[in-house]
Amino acid sequence: MPHDHKTKVLILSYFFPPCNITSSQRAYSWAKYLGEFGYYPIVITRNWERAVRYPTDLHYNTYQTTIHQKFGTYEVFYLPYKQSLRDKLFIRDKKRSKNIFRKLLTLWELIMQNYFDFSIPFNNFYHFANEYLKKNKDIKLMIVTVNPYVMFKFAAKLKKQHPQIKWIADYRDDWNTRKESHWYNGFPLIKRFAANIERNSELKWTASSSLITSVSEFNTEKISRFLNKPGVTVYNGFIPEDFDSLKQISDYDNFNITFNGTIIEMQEIAIFIAALKRIIDEYQGKTKVKINFIGTGYDIYQEMKIKSLMEGYEKHLNITHRIPRKKVLEVQMRSQVLLLVAYGHVKGITGTKTFDYLATGKPIILCPSDNDILERIVKETGQGIICNNEHEAYIALKQLIDEWLNNKSIKVSLNTKAIEFYTRKKQTETLSKELNKLI
Questions:
Q1: What is the pTM of this model?
Q2: Alpha-carbon gap, residue 146 to 141, rounded angstroms
Q3: How far apart are CA 25 and CA 238, in angstroms?
Q4: Which one of 27, 35, 242, 325 has the largest count of C-beta atoms within 10 Å of its C-beta?
């Protein structure tokens, strides 16, 4: 169907390919699939000419001209990014945790952006979208996906300038409702003061939205209750075509376990590593057991923590910084087992890697469990083993390695229908139904 006969929808997303941060995949999947459901997406994002391997890569200036690209079923405007003073300090500061001035400047920016647009380095999002909507009055729908959460401020201003717009506030992560999940525990008083300002801003900015969406039932319900807005869950997911060229790839010769992505402090990775070291000792001479942490080196402190936990077992450890997505998927497809770790006591977090894991058909170990959505997903798809302590993880690993040594493969009883539900296309269909209701 020619896009002239489709309903246009404007999507504001800070992250979008070629950005290699996993957040970019959410808006990308909507751009890719919404055309099949009668919509023509126009995406506004920032320029991503620089691959993000380290945190500093987010803070450089970009090419200072807007780039417009059409991809058949959607189009994208890549806006230039001009670094702020905080960005410059972040790049220069080699000991990021020690720079008190930079931290205070970050906090100052978080407060000021609630009141003054000039304090937002990417405020060109609003100005460009505003001019675009003036010239394209046939656009009646908009999706704004966050974070950065200040994108909702732009949405509220755009709604005021263009009353015909109905917009969806999409949360990849919850914002001020994180306090219910103990994200704010231990924060200094000044940060609590900033959090109260942000709480009021969130309520104010989303007031004009027609609907909120988020990535899990727990998050959707919590945010919907906080904002007093209707909410719908649109999961992240996987794109089956990303794995087509990897289906015939052979597994690693030795037994590989892979964890993809960064680790945050509340994830109890030490439980699994303790079991892993027992297995490494027990199976010496039978097979080399190796664990890969792909992209985890993006956070130098978590990299140091893992290296400390694996001290004496360095030959069995591989940690990388962020690498191209295609390479990430290849490592997962070649691994014998994939690892998930719950986010402490926090509910409602799936992580994009969970769905990429499903696409591989490989066994997943969840250790420890979240007793929530991760456990439900790995159980209903038939792909997971739940372990909550070192002994359970040890037994699970032992059974998997023994089966692999005997058969050179591990049998997994997959529920293909349940897995299909978590494709990006299926989730975009859910989103399209909500758009249908708005028009």
A1: 0.85
A2: 17
A3: 9
A4: 27
